[in-house]
Write a structure and sequence with these properties.
A mainly alpha (516), B alpha+beta (305), C mainly alpha (222), A: 516 residues, mainly alpha, Arc Repressor Mutant, subunit A, three-stranded antiparallel beta sheet, 22 helices, B: Arc Repressor Mutant, subunit A, 14 helices, 10 strands, elongated, DNA-directed RNA polymerase III subunit RPC6 (chain B), nucleus (chain B), DNA-directed RNA polymerase (chain B), transcription (chain B), RNA_pol_Rpc34-like (chain B)
Chain lengths: 516, 305, 222
């Protein structure tokens, strides 16, 4: 089952960056860090193309380099980042929910460039806003769009969703070293932007000029997405949602407040955060009745995510991320067993997981399942590696009868690893299906694009209704129906891939906290 | 002769008294020790009279010593007119209460021939004085006990076994019914005002109450105990549907249960064919099992087409 | 993990079905499906994904992102070799071959990745040297001098032209370098698949090449 991550990464690179970049990336994955020369000879691609591919990968934060020999760099693929490409739509949406459409456009622009200058981001996202809102926006408000964009960008940077990219100290060196000062990481100061120039460029581009010659200051400072910051929010969402399911929405609010206060005094990525008091939490919530009650309940119901540690200040509570993701992962895997083998098997699985080591007979008795059925289910769980067996010798006597007992147990770490691999495989399979079906229907899809392009051109150049209809009729009703079906299937596959990332995220969090 | 009769009556009384003291039975030796002045012949007479009138039972212990026990006046009615062997066998079975006893053991205790024992057992069964069952632990050993008694739970496997077979269906039905009861209680509890703790408390149900509800449902004639119900409720805990808590009430805690939801909804992996696929380990880019050839994918995607 | 096959005996630590108390020949759920098919009936179908209101929008973002990246300059395309036949489909190719040069701030990348080669002369020297290397693999003695000579002349000619452009410091420096590189590759390919007699010819004429080398440096073409 190993190699699933590699296949997924290859597929992702291919889908977004093409075969050449994919081949280079895949070689780096398989062969490890390598210099340019070896990449060329291994991939058998032209030198110029390998260079371009590397540049693209670097710009999208997927490859880094080190000085391997004097003047010669050695490139390394960050394969976890490749997987994150599938998460970009979630980042974009998250920011839309939290800060609005302008911020959404900013994150969208940066994702597509990998790294971008502040001016590029402001200009491009403003234009996107204009395109998205032509009916709602009058000329007046658009004049100031660059200010709005600048403000949103500042906000995102201050909240650490966007960070400054490390820059080369001395660009004359053949192998530049990239660094960034900690105080600069989230610092975009006013002098770094020329508002007039921004406004000018936006106007010129709106007027239709492709490449206006407008210069901006600090055009050598680039910005990129701070993935971990988004992951904090996603992580918090997971635990909040689970509490809402277990208790109710208000409990989710309380937990949210508890988290917020905790971040004021703890590193967001530690296993166990510092305690906060009820009074501090209360300050954060407008007016929540029964706060103490909710906290008490959350403590009892959260599977160890929230722990009470004292009574000072009305009660002290702390977040325990390790426990949180342990509980969530247990629930996840229990659910997986249930959906794959049935509820009786899930009962057995939970039993063994909680009792650590169990004998076969015990399993039958405690689960209240017919012994024969219990044995069969146990065997199936064993066969699929959800359960493991540990042999204990009872006697040293050589007689074969009853000389050892078999104890069943759950090895969480290896089960998690197995399910991650399984998820990668599922992801790969879904992507292959999607690609295959797109290829099978290429003619139809291309025809549709042609028709759509022509219609759009007609619309822009003022074509008549009749003309447009004539073009639309180029697609027969049969074709239209077939096309709709093809698209429906493509969407279903896309949605499954997006959803699968959720499972992967929880398992990644579990692994992170286990290995801290 | 009057003196002899008086003396006999006194001896009788004394023997009966002694029997009362020594519930496990008395021997000639004990009687002699108690009344050393008596002649053995006299004792024998008295004993025989008591046996004949059915006030005493005679048993032979392993070392061939005769033992005499008081007969339970109740059972006297039931076996009136029965042969001595029947009385003996009946007594033995009676002593074993709800544990019961199997034929071979009866033979050794009564020192009767196995054939005799078997014959007597048939007779007693036909008179509906005794009945038989097979314990779960030793399904071949036919065990006898008094007709009006129920065999001990430990032997029959309790409520869960009928004819030595584990009754899965019965267990599942109970499981469902308990769950439903707890779930309804949780729904009702949400109407409670006074904050979330009140709601939570209101959604807990004591095992006693669950037992009462289930018994009233009348889905089974089997008498369930608190332990039985708690066993079922524990399986619901392992189903991830119920949580257990303990409330202090008097000397020991009372077990409380309530319905809960899972932390997570159905995992996304299980919403793809790959999650439920039995061939996932064989799946590769070459061979018969590939994502392109996958039949499950086809069915999953083309289901509306 | 070796493939285990459905319903087969597990090989884990000597645990067999018998040991688990299942009698021989007893029907297991797996085997109910008669003769073995590649894809046995599913015991449980895939579940329905819980409906999320935001899923539709996220789906849009994903599709838009994918489409954008595929059409962006970051989707590196191979060089289209056969531009001689204009294909019908070319008319409807969206943007693919019109991306041109990758536009990046090259100072942020290792020098070796820059499209403009700092050490051009060195590179130039390499070109004939490469020819020599291939040449040394020659075997047969069949010769077709004129043809191959003319070809080589042509190659050198274009290289020479580029060089003069270089000297003029034209804007098309980068593009030219690309072409040179392409030519270089093409020359290599030709020689690699090439006939032995070409190689063999130059086996005898190494000094010929050296002279040429000098000739290049002087700026003239032989």
């Amino acid at each position: 089952m190993s190699g699933n991550l590699q296949k997924v990464c290859l597929k992702i690179l291919k889908e977004y960056f093409g075969d050449i970049v994919a081949k280079v990336g895949d070689t780096l994955f398989q062969k490890g860090s390598n210099p340019l020369r070896i990449l060329c000879s291994t991939t058998k691609l032209p030198l110029s193309k390998v260079k371009e591919a590397l540049a693209v990968l670097i710009k999208h934060n997927l490859v880094t380099w080190d000085e391997w020999k004097p003047g010669i760099p050695c490139y390394t693929l960050l394969h976890d980042r490749v997987l994150l490409i599938l998460r970009y739509p979630r980042y974009v949406y998250h920011v839309r929910e939290k800060f609005g459409e302008q911020s959404e456009m900013i994150i969208d622009v940066i994702s597509k460039e990998g790294q971008a200058t502040a001016s590029h981001v402001i200009v491009t996202s403003s234009l996107k806003m204009y395109d998205a809102n032509t009916d709602g926006m009058n000329k007046g408000s658009f004049e100031q769009q660059h200010i709005t964009a600048r403000n949103h960008l500042l906000n995102l940077i201050e909240n650490e969703y966007i960070q400054r990219c490390p820059a080369p100290q001395d660009s004359n060196k053949p192998v530049p070293k990239l660094t960034v000062k900690a105080e600069d990481l989230y610092s975009l100061t006013p002098e770094m932007l020329d508002l007039k120039a921004l406004q000018q460029e936006i106007q010129l581009r709106r007027a239709g000029e492709g490449k206006p010659e407008v210069s901006h200051p600090y055009s050598d400072i680039f910005w990129r997405i701070n993935y971990d910051r988004f992951h904090i929010d996603f992580r918090d969402s997971e635990i909040r949602n689970s509490i809402v399911r277990r208790v109710d929405p208000l409990a989710g609010e309380c937990l949210g407040a508890l988290l917020k206060v905790s971040y004021g005094r703890s590193d967001p990525w530690v296993s166990v955060m510092n305690p906060v008091t009820v009074s501090e939490i209360r300050d954060h919530l407008k007016d929540l009745k029964y706060l103490e009650q909710y906290l008490k309940i959350i403590e009892e119901q959260s599977g160890g995510c929230v722990q009470k540690v004292g009574d000072a200040g009305g009660g002290q509570y702390r977040i325990n991320m390790f426990n949180a993701f342990q509980s969530l992962t247990h629930a996840l895997i229990d659910n997986i067993v249930q959906d794959r083998f049935g509820s009786k098997a899930a009962r057995i699985f939970r039993l063994v997981r909680q009792h650590r080591m169990m004998e076969q007979d015990q399993i039958g008795e405690m689960s209240m399942i017919d012994k024969k059925e219990a044995n069969i289910l146990t065997y199936r769980l064993l066969h699929d590696n959800f359960l493991r067996i540990h042999e204990l010798r009872k006697t040293l006597a050589p007689s074969p009868a009853n000389k050892s007992i078999f104890l069943f147990h759950v090895d969480m770490t290896s089960v998690v690893r197995m399910i991650l691999e399984w998820s990668y495989k599922a992801l790969y399979n879904l992507m292959v299906q999607r690609e295959t079906r797109a290829n099978d229907n290429r003619r139809l899809l291309e025809k549709h694009i042609r028709v759509a392009t022509i219609v759009e051109n007609l619309n822009q150049s003022g074509g008549t209704e009749d003309q447009i209809q004539e073009v639309l009729d180029m697609m027969t009703p049969n074709e239209k129906e077939h096309l709709e079906q093809v698209n429906k299937i493509q969407d279903k596959l896309h949605v499954s891939e997006i959803a699968l990332d959720d499972t992967i995220f929880i398992l990644q969090m579990f692994t992170y906290y286990q290995t801290l | 002769m009057a003196a002899t009769t008086d003396l006999d009556a006194q001896v009788e009384q004394r023997v009966v008294q002694l029997c009362g003291e020594f519930k496990q039975g008395i021997t000639y030796q004990i009687i002699q020790n108690d009344m050393p002045t008596l002649e053995l012949a006299q004792i024998v007479n008295v004993i025989n009279k008591l046996l004949a009138t059915g006030r005493l039972d005679m048993l032979k212990k392993d070392d061939d010593i005769l033992v005499f026990k008081l007969r339970d006046p109740g059972s006297l009615h039931r076996v009136k007119g029965a042969e001595p062997e029947e009385q003996v066998v009946y007594k033995i079975i009676e002593e074993c209460g709800t544990q019961g006893i199997w034929a071979r053991e009866i033979r050794s205790r009564s020192n009767l021939h196995l054939n005799t024992v078997e014959k007597v057992l048939r007779k007693l069964e036909s008179k509906k004085l005794i009945k038989s069952f097979n314990p779960v632990s030793a399904p071949k050993k036919k065990t006898y006990l008094l007709y009006n008694l129920e065999p001990d739970r430990s032997l029959t496997g309790g409520a869960w076994y009928s004819d030595q077979h584990f009754d899965s269906e019965f267990v599942d039905i109970l499981n469902q019914q308990c769950w439903r009861f707890l779930e309804q209680r949780t729904v009702r509890a949400r109407q409670v005002t006074g904050g979330p703790v009140a709601v939570r408390t209101a959604s807990f149900v004591a095992s006693k109450e669950v037992l009462k509800h289930i018994s009233e449902l009348g889905i089974t004639k089997v008498q369930l105990s608190i332990d039985d119900i708690e066993t079922i409720l524990e399986t619901l805990v392992f189903d991830g549907k119920v949580e257990r808590s303990v409330a202090a009430e008097g000397a020991e805690g009372v077990k409380l249960y309530r319905a809960v939801s899972s932390f997570l909804p159905t995992p996304a992996l299980m919403c793809t064919p790959c999650g439920v696929c039995p061939l996932i380990k064989e799946c590769d880019d070459v061979g018969n099992v590939t994502p392109v050839k996958c039949r499950y994918m086809k069915e999953w995607l083309d289901v509306e087409w | 993990m070796a493939a285990r096959g459905r319903g087969g005996r597990g090989r884990g630590r000597g645990m067999t079905l018998e040991q688990l108390g299942v009698q021989r020949g007893e029907v297991l759920p797996d085997n109910i499906v008669g003769p073995p098919e590649t894809y046995p009936l599913l015991e449980f179908k895939p579940s329905q994904l819980p409906q999320k209101e935001n899923m539709e929008y996220i789906l849009c973002i994903k599709k838009d992102f994918q489409e954008h990246m595929q059409n962006s300059q970051y989707n590196i395309q191979p060089e289209v070799k056969n531009m001689d036949i204009e294909r019908y489909s070319d008319r409807y190719q969206l943007l693919t071959s019109h991306r041109g040069q990758l536009s990046l701030t090259w100072s942020r990348f290792p020098k070796e990745l820059h499209p403009m080669m700092a050490s051009l002369p060195k590179k130039r020297k390499l070109k004939p040297a490469k020819v020599v290397v291939n040449v040394k693999k020659a075997r047969t003695k069949d010769i077709n001098v004129n043809e191959t000579l003319e070809e080589l002349e042509k190659k050198e000619a274009t290289a020479g032209v580029d060089e003069t452009e270089e000297d003029e410091g034209g804007e098309r420096e980068n593009k030219a370098e690309e072409e040179v590189e392409e030519d270089l590759e093409e020359v290599d390919e030709e020689l690699d698949e090439g006939t032995d007699y070409i190689n063999n010819y130059f086996d005898n004429g190494e000094s010929y090449l050296d002279e040429e080398d000098d000739a290049l440096e002087e700026g003239g073409v032989f």
